[in-house]
Design goal:
alpha/beta; Aspartate Aminotransferase, domain 2; Aspartate Aminotransferase, domain 1; 2 domains; 13 helices; globular
Length: 377
């Protein structure tokens, strides 16, 4: 029996008729860019994320870029974030000519460490602080970062907060939805996400009308009236086809999330029965609604050997992420070195994502744990 890391064909089978219906509507209308399907999705996502506004964009990466553009972040500015994230978080900062400033992660949640963040800010002089324009916390694996300290620090130093919520749609922190706490929330509709399109797509949430107006203009080359440009933007528009597909899927998101949470519960029971505490550390649920975009375990030893063993047994896994951003070759100019962020480096060397998608059977979950037990014991 094979256990893929993700099987989207199961999901598609259940909603195929609805998907084909809306795609046919798009084809018949020949309205492919923005339009009513995008507007509808924006309104639905705003309601779902408990925010006032949402702006559909071309990808999760572009959601980050356009948010920083709307916030006025550019060449020479500095943005505080963590090195343990997907490349787009850091790549988006540097593409605008800004500079990432790293702090380490919390070892339990893998999200930004409030203690490390505060320590960094307090260590800076006035001139250095003046160059900091924002904080970019990442809600990794489907669990929100500890946001109160982040928001309080941002208010104290007049910094913009941009939530990288690409993996966290529907996650909550103290009953507040991901993407509703900062100045901007950035989401990805990449197909493998909990809420995925049939291609690239993303959305930005905000509670600020002025930011919303800027976002709407920036995604259309800085134009609010066609051919008249008050600012320089880009082509960050969301396709109507992707918006329509995501809108169909959004109706099922909460039920899919419950299945992911139930799969996580099954893993916990099986790992407890397997008595693998000396080898495996399970994900820690700190906040009230973890949506399990990934189920990531930490292994005391032999992570890579285990992954090979599981692959040979037909079980898919993934390493998110094998090289933290401060050690990536393209960011060597930042001057960071090995051991600068020990928690991020430990996570990169010891974590492994297991299958958790809706459609995963109890038998498949049991096989995953059985094979891990066989490897270590």
């Amino acid at each position: 029996m094979k256990v893929p890391l993700l099987d989207l064909k199961i999901q598609y089978k259940d909603i195929k008729d609805e998907i084909l219906k809306v795609t046919e509507e798009i084809f018949e209308s020949q309205y492919f860019i923005l339009g009513p399907h995008v507007v509808r999705l924006e309104e639905e996502i705003a309601r779902y994320c408990h925010v006032d506004y949402a702006t559909g964009v071309s990808s999760g990466t572009d959601a980050l870029i356009i948010s920083m553009m709307a916030a006025g972040i550019g060449a020479g500015d500095r943005v505080i974030t963590t090195p343990y994230t997907f490349f787009a978080t850091i790549g988006s900062i540097t593409r605008l000519g800004a500079k990432p400033v790293f702090v380490d992660i919390d070892p339990e949640t893998y999200n930004i460490s409030p203690e490390a963040l505060k320590k960094l800010v307090l260590s800076m002089g006035k001139e250095e602080l003046a160059g900091i324009k924002g904080i970019l916390p990442v809600h990794l694996y489907g669990q929100c970062a500890d946001m109160d300290p982040v928001i309080n620090l941002a208010k104290e130093y007049n910094l913009v907060v941009i939530e990288d919520a690409a993996q966290a749609i529907g996650a909550e922190y103290k009953s507040k939805r991901a993407g509703s706490m900062g100045d901007f929330g950035c989401f990805s509709f990449f197909p493998s996400k909990n809420l995925g399109a049939f291609g690239d797509g993303g959305i930005v949430t905000t509670n600020s009308k002025s930011f919303q107006d800027k976002l709407q203009a920036l995604r259309m080359h800085g134009s609010q009236t066609k051919y008249y440009h008050s600012i320089v933007g880009g082509n960050f528009r969301l396709d109507a086809l992707q918006a329509a597909i995501v809108s169909v899927k959004l109706k099922y998101l909460d039920s899919w999330t419950k299945i992911r949470q139930e799969n996580a519960r099954k893993y916990r029971e099986l790992f407890a029965d397997a008595a693998l505490d000396d080898f495996v550390r399970l994900p820690v649920e700190v906040e009230n609604r973890h949506i399990y975009n990934q189920f990531v375990i930490s292994l005391n030893s032999k992570r890579d050997e285990l992954r090979t063993f599981l692959a040979d047994s037909g079980i898919g896994t993934e390493i998110y992420y094998p090289v933290p951003m401060h050690l990536q070759e393209c960011f060597s100019y930042l001057g960071y070195r090995e051991n600068d962020f020990p928690e991020a480096e430990y996570a990169a060397a010891h974590t492994l994502a297991l299958p958790i998608y809706p459609g995963l059977s109890d038998t498949q979950i049991e096989l995953v744990v059985e094979k891990i037990k066989l490897f270590y014991l």
